[in-house]
Write a structure and sequence with these properties.
One of its GO terms (cellular component) is proton-transporting ATP synthase complex. Keywords: ATP synthesis, Cell membrane, CF(0), Hydrogen ion transport, Ion transport, Lipid-binding, Membrane, Transmembrane, Transmembrane helix, Transport. InterPro entries: ATP_synth_F0_csu, ATP_synth_F0_csu_sf, ATPase_proteolipid_c-like_dom, F/V-ATP_Csub_sf. It is a multi-pass membrane protein. The protein is an all-alpha fold and 74 residues long. It has a single domain, classed as Up-down Bundle (F1FO ATP Synthase). It is 89% helix and 0% strand. It is built from 3 helices and no strands. Helix 1 packs antiparallel against helix 3 and helix 2 runs antiparallel to helix 3. It is rod-shaped.
Length: 74
């Protein structure tokens, strides 16, 4: 196997993180909605944690895309 094929295989494996980020965002928002419906008075207090979790999860997806692009074009 030549180096070019190995770069593309590595980039494809790195892209798995983007799928995990999408799943993670769904889980985060789903759990927040479930908790907010059970106890609506506590929902505004947890909104900051929701946004932080969303940001971290999306950042991991963007980092995996960056790694994939670096593997492909370097």
């Amino acid at each position: 196997m030549d180096a070019e094929a190995a770069k593309f295989i590595g980039a494809g494996i790195a892209c798995i993180g983007m799928g995990g980020a999408g799943i993670g965002v769904g889980i985060i928002f789903g759990n927040f909605l479930q908790g907010a419906l059970r106890n609506p008075s506590e929902a505004p207090k947890q909104f900051g944690n929701l946004i932080f979790g969303f940001a971290v999860t999306e950042a991991l997806g963007i980092f995996s895309l960056l790694i994939a692009l670096l593997l492909m074009f370097t």
